[in-house]
Amino acid sequence: MEYRRLGKTGLKVSELSLGSWVTFSKQVDQKEALALMSLAYDEGVNFFDNAEGYEAGESEALMGAALKQLGWSRDSFSVSSKVFWGGSKPTQKGLSRKHVTEACHAALKRLQVDYLDLYFCHRPDIDTPIEETVWAMHNLITQGKILYWGTSEWNAQQLTEAWAVAKDLKISPPVMEQPQYNLFVREKVEHDYLPLYELMGLGTTIWSPLASGALTGKYNDGIPDDSRFNLPGYEWLKKEWTSEAGKAKLETIKQLAVLAKEVGLPIHHLALLWCLSNPHVSTVILGASKKAQLADNLSALKSKDKLTPDVIEKIEAIMGNKPKPFDRY
After folding, report:
1. Are 22 and 231 in contact (CB under 8 A)?
2. Is the dihedral of CA 259, 265, 267, 271 positive or negative?
3. What average pLDDT is seen over the chain?
4. Fewer Cβ atoms within 10 A, N terminus or C terminus of the chain?
5. Which residue among 3, 41, 54, 181 is the active-site one?
6. Is 54 an annotated catalytic residue?
């Protein structure tokens, strides 16, 4: 395992990390969560990602119970939460000072920690002035309840506005973003955010590196019964990949699988290593429901030397979706 700076901060995060979306409390119980986190930590993972919106807080409660039982030194790992979807009442959602503050307190309680290392605005909130959200995050930092704050799935303009407000007020700016990033979803990370890596020192904790599991190749011959596509509440995901556009992506994955075999890699290792080849990616968040699955994904790091410039060029030829660079770059 190697470690990368979270953007221009001094925080070092493992290049592969463990997230709980879909799995914890949905597919993974307390015993399995403990086993997954223990394996990840033993393999060098030091960042564990969560959110109030994951299973209505149950995902955080599961992770918190595991952290307490594992008893790791608090200075040896980082944990995150995200704020936006806390409940159905008006004061239980969004990015108002009230909800940002109360969601933080609730996450601390569920995760059984004294502070959050990373705290994300899970989505932009058009009903709350950006100054209010920036001040709320800054206040939590000064209170020692969070160390770094950032965003998830904000566009470049929204990020720039938040950063500019913080700079103007001389308070803590956002330093990281959690966007989806994989071979099919590239525009934000490779194009939209490009000026922000230097301007803001932006770090990225990317999610869905395997495109909801599609880049493992397991959907090439149909959807298995135990797939997340068949989980209650994820019908939208199944619809996305069974549409005409989704079927076209699956054909592309079949071509990638042929290349991966030529290179001597499983296709999911090829996809993970491709994400890591981007220097603007601080950490790649893995999801797993079984120890064997997590161990397999972590083992991709042993094959970094196989992702040569020539292989990357062949990947790009298959994908044909590389974002156009800015004229000034």
Report:
1. yes
2. negative
3. 93
4. C
5. 54
6. yes
